């Protein structure tokens, strides 16, 4: 099993200092590892100006099941 997380930051305007053009998210995950791959849930919490896909109407959090191969 692999436990990990990611911090994502994006800024939509190049030299703009306004945070309304930014997004920050925290995404912890737990992967069940098997020979050649993994599968597991990922929880994403959008901290600043929610962007992207989510389950709630405000776009604050999402839960995804992900899987893939490891080479």
Task: Give a verbal description of the structure.
By secondary structure, this protein is mainly β. The protein has one domain (2-10, 24-69). Helix content is 0%, strand content 62%. The chain contains no helices and four strands. Strands 1-2-3-4 form a four-stranded antiparallel β-sheet, with no helix packed on it. It is elongated and about 45 Å long. The model has no long low-confidence stretch (mean pLDDT 80).
Give me a quick take on this structure.
The chain has 71 residues and is mainly β.
Name some characteristics of this structure.
single chain; 71 residues; mainly beta; four-stranded antiparallel β-sheet
Q: How many strands appear in the DSSP assignment?
A: 4
Outline the biggest β-sheet: 4 strands, antiparallel
Name the helicity range. under 10%
Amount of beta strand: over 45%
Weakly predicted, low-confidence segments: none
* Average of per-residue pLDDT values: 80
Helix and strand pattern: EEEE
Overall tally of structural domains = 1
The tally of helices reads 0
Assembly state (oligomeric)? single chain
Q: Helix- and strand-based class? A: mainly beta
Neighbour order of strands in the largest sheet: 1-2-3-4
Distance between the termini: 17 Å
Shape: elongated
Cα radius of gyration in angstroms = 15 Å
């Amino acid at each position: 099993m692999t436990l990990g997380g990611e911090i994502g930051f994006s800024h939509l305007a190049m030299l703009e200092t306004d945070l309304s053009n930014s997004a920050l998210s925290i995404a912890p995950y737990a992967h069940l590892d098997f020979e050649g791959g993994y599968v597991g849930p990922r929880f994403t919490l959008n901290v600043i100006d929610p962007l992207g896909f989510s389950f709630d109407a405000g776009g604050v959090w999402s839960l995804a099941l992900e899987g893939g191969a490891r080479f």
